[in-house]
Specification:
CATH superfamily of the largest domain: Aldolase class I
Strand content: 15-25%
CATH topology of the largest domain: TIM Barrel
Shape: globular
Strand order of the largest sheet: 17-16-15-14-13-12-11-19-18
CATH class of the largest domain: Alpha Beta
Number of helices: 11
Largest sheet: 9 strands, parallel
Radius of gyration: 22 Å
Structural class: alpha/beta
CATH architecture of the largest domain: Alpha-Beta Barrel
Number of domains: 2
Number of strands: 22
């Protein structure tokens, strides 16, 4: 079923479709607008709960799972509400926080898909994800393993030399694997603020003086170079693209966000992406697109995506159309480089990213954050893996402030799922045990991603927000862990 609308002179905020005879009598799966924030899972029917993009339900009477959603690439932000008397689909067509002005435009807003029970709730949601993206994921054919120093440096005290040192450590852990890992230069390499924007012309003087040269130095250590950018922001306070001007009316925008509908703004985005890939970086992690557009992250699945009353320079397109054009522009500019979306809307970005950061940040300082964000994201976004993109549940930390007995379990489950495996390694913490664990996990991850070993899935995902039973392995996520049980022997 495709939902289309022709717009007249009056601005439109949203369109609602109601199925009054649709009864849901069991637990309901909730996803998220962009990243999850430890908040995805199965919940009782609640009329006040918003279900972005898709949902599934398991009947308390029959045990049958029903799964419904909208195909990727929708032109509206689509969500569902479920109550005791029916189901409502909300199609949010706002521009910024105001009604859409699209006189004379007929827009295909969304295509609804529904799949029958596939034998288990997990298999049914996998089938739904496949139906929502019939074209399948993009072109990844190699295992995605690598490191990212963010969770032990948080952008402080790092330079080209530390990146090269970490790349050498990474290559040593991978050993003679033919699949070479990615050494990702995360936020903090470029001039500007703590989380700077473009234009990306060069690295921070004194710390990152030769960004093209760094690519070759990473390769010399046996790794592949990746880089982080925030293409929807600028460090120039007089930029003609700032969201606080350029014809937009969001006066509460921060000092960096740009209006990507302003004339010339997308060309600046294209130039920034082309610059870093032109330097030779083979993976580009791009961040903050939804925060920069809406002025907030989305840790709850409220339909209140942004504050009301403001609009973008171009008022004729929906927020979903605007973000989709951004993602398509970045993909076109990246050429052969792999793209990792972070704080991107997976349902809009799926055709244009290779890898997707599917949850909020894990932590090199607090294990509870890694459990909440990393384990939850891995479990409840895993059905999207290989259907939408390669799932990235975020980095496994190895730092002095977190317990390796806990982090090594997260390392193991990520490896066994066959999703992207990125680690954040403080060299001071790499004792013989950690090195052995990391090396074994990287080899295991590569083998699962190549299809040589069957991946695991969460077995108790209906009863826990942080499932601990994955295939033959039961993990202990508690702060005082026992040695976790593994049928094939200890890691």
């Amino acid at each position: 079923m495709t939902v289309s609308a022709e717009f007249g002179a009056e601005p439109v905020l949203a369109i609602a479709l109601r199925w009054s005879s649709w009864r849901v009598d069991g637990l309901v799966l909730k996803d998220a607008w962009e990243r999850t924030y430890g908040d995805a899972g199965w919940f009782p029917v609640d009329a006040d709960r918003t279900h972005p993009w898709y949902w599934a339900s398991t009947s308390i009477h029959s045990g049958v799972t029903d799964a419904v959603g909208v195909r990727v690439g929708a032109a509206a932000f689509c969500s569902w509400s479920i109550d005791g008397t029916g189901v409502t689909l909300w199609l949010d067509v706002r521009n910024g926080g105001s009604g859409l002005r699209a006189l004379g435009r007929r827009i295909d807003l969304a295509s609804i898909v529904r799949v029958p029970d596939a034998g288990s709730s997990y298999d049914t949601v996998v089938r739904l994800c496949e139906a929502m993206n019939p074209a399948g994921r993009r072109r990844i054919v190699e295992p995605i393993i690598g490191n990212n120093d963010w969770y032990y440096t948080y952008g402080v005290g790092r330079d080209q030399n530390s990146v090269i040192r970490d790349a050498a450590i990474l290559s040593g852990l991978v050993g003679d694997l033919s699949d070479r890992p990615f050494a990702v230069v995360d936020c903090g390499w470029s001039p500007g603020s703590y989380v700077p924007g473009g234009p990306y012309l060069a690295g921070e003087p004194g710390r990152f003086d030769d960004m093209p040269g760094l690519v070759g130095q990473i390769r010399d250590e046996g790794a592949r170079a990746g880089i982080w950018i925030r293409p929807t922001a600028t460090i120039h306070s007089d930029s003609p693209y700032l969201l606080r001007g350029s014809g937009s009316t969001r006066e509460d925008a921060d000092d960096f966000a740009i209006d990507i509908t302003a004339p010339g703004a997308l060309e600046q985005v294209r130039t920034d992406v082309s610059t870093v890939t032109g330097w030779g970086y083979e993976l580009v992690k791009y961040d903050f697109s939804t925060f920069d557009l809406f002025g907030r992250f989305h840790p709850s699945a409220s339909r209140d995506l942004t504050r009301p009353g403001w609009h973008l320079a171009d008022r004729t397109r929906t927020n979903a159309e605007i973000l989709t054009e951004l993602y398509a522009t970045i993909a076109d500019a990246a050429g052969d480089a792999l793209l990792l979306g972070c704080n991107t809307v997976g349902h809009l970005a799926a055709p244009y990213v290779d890898i997707q950061r599917t949850g909020d940040d894990t932590s090199g300082r607090d294990w509870a954050i890694t459990r909440k964000m990393g384990v939850n994201s891995l479990a409840f976004r895993l059905p999207q893996h290989e259907s939408f993109f390669t799932v990235d549940a975020d980095c496994v930390p190895c730092t002095p402030k977190t317990d390796w007995n806990l982090n090594r379990q997260f390392l193991d489950v990520v490896a066994r799922t066959g999703t992207a495996l990125f680690v954040s390694l403080d060299p001071a913490e790499l004792d013989a045990r950690a090195r052995a664990d990391l090396s074994a996990a990287m080899r295991l991850s590569a083998a699962v991603q190549r299809g040589e070993i069957a991946p695991v899935r969460p077995l108790n995902w209906e009863s826990s927000l942080t499932p601990d039973r994955w295939g033959p392995v039961t993990y202990d996520w508690s702060e005082d862990p026992r040695v976790f049980v593994e049928s094939e022997g200890e890691l």
